[in-house]
Amino acid sequence: MADKEIKSIDPATLEMIEKAAQDGARVVFERAETMRACPIGDAGNCCSLCAMGPCRVMAPRGKEETVEERRKRVGVCGATPETIAARMFVRKLAAGTASHGDHGRVMAKFFMAVAKGEAPGYRIKDEQKLLQLALDLGVNIGDRSNEAIAVDIGQLLLNEFGKQEGELLFLKRAPLKRQELWRKLGVAPRGIDIEVSEAMHRTHMGTDQEYQHLLNSGVKVALADGWGGSMIATEIQDVIFGTPAPVLSQINLGVLKEDEVNIIIHGHEPQLAEMMAVVSQDAEMIAYAKSKGANGINLAGMCCTANEMLMRHGVPIAGNFLQQELAIVTGAVEAMVVDVQCIMQGLVDTARCYHTKVITTDFRAKIQGATHIEFNEHNAVESAKTIIKTAVDNFVNRGKNVRIPVHKTDMIAGFSHETINYLMGGLFRASYRPLNDNIINGRIRGVAGVVGCNNPRTPHDQGNQLMVMELIKNDVLVLQTGCMAMASAKAGLMVPEAAQYAGEGLRSVCEAVGIPPVLHMGACIDNSRLLIAATAMVKDGGLGDDISDLPVAGAAPEWMSEKALAIGHYFVGSGVFTVFGTTWPTIGSQEVTDYLFKDFEGIYGGMWAFEPDPIKAAHLMIDHIDKKRKALGIDKARERVLYDMAMRRELDSV
Ligand code: SF4
Ligand code: MSK
Question: Is the CB of 452 under 6 A from ligand 2?
Answer without folding.
Answer: yes
